[in-house]
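Running co-folding for adenosine-5'-diphosphate.
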Amino acid sequence: MAFVNCENITLSYEGRDVISGLTFHLEKGEYLCIVGENGSGKSTLIKGILGFVKPTEGKIFFEGIAQNEIGYLPQQTERQRDFPASVREIVISGCLNSMGWRPFYSPREKNLAARNMERLGILELSQQPYNELSGGQQQRVLLARALCAAESLLVLDEPVTGLDPLVTRDLYDLIRKLNSEGMTIIMVSHDVAGALKYADRILHLHHEGYFFGTRREYEQSPFCRMLRLGGEER
Ligand code: ADP
């Protein structure tokens, strides 16, 4: 058994299959980038991995972690950018999944939040209102929040959308650093060039099938040319 296992899964909404017959396995410490045209099912697959959408066929399972120990960085909406809470409050809320019914944060959780803010270089921002930060700082806050939940798997949905190139590179570097420290990464991205630079496995979803393999195999596959020619690169 691998660390992340998707065995012949079908994911559907109201009887309409968005993904069917998808199989892939990921080992601990690997970095997977999921690419594909709009509407190809990338976000749906992420929801499947997180357990929000149940496969109608096949199964998704993990070796050694529970689904609520997956760190998740969702796509940001405009409304979330305006969220009126302090950086610390947002980061520590990443611990909520593991707290059950307990209504207060334990010292362990407070330490975990502080450690993750330090890890991402935002400790000095901890009392600042989240909605006054730049886009790049906000992503760091959400990443620190995801790390509070993440034992060893981090799932990111389009983390660099709307960020300028310099901030994008910073965030990619940060994600790569987490990966080099042992964190397994699953990232949805529109940025094929970035995916090819950082990921060691690529999953390309397409309405007529999919590609899963190493970066080098992907570079030589028709799937790679298809996405580049289709102008999906941003
Ligand atoms: P991507 O992330 O690759 O752009 P999505 O996973 O968001 O693709 O969507 C895949 C398909 O599933 C699209 O046709 C979309 O309209 C449909 N879809 C997504 N979410 C829902 C939903 N909650 N209910 C019904 N259909 C949905």
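Result summary
The pocket of adenosine-5'-diphosphate is lined by residues 13, 18, 36, 38-44 (CB under 6 Å).
Residues 28 and 130 are 33 Å apart (CA to CA).
Job closed.
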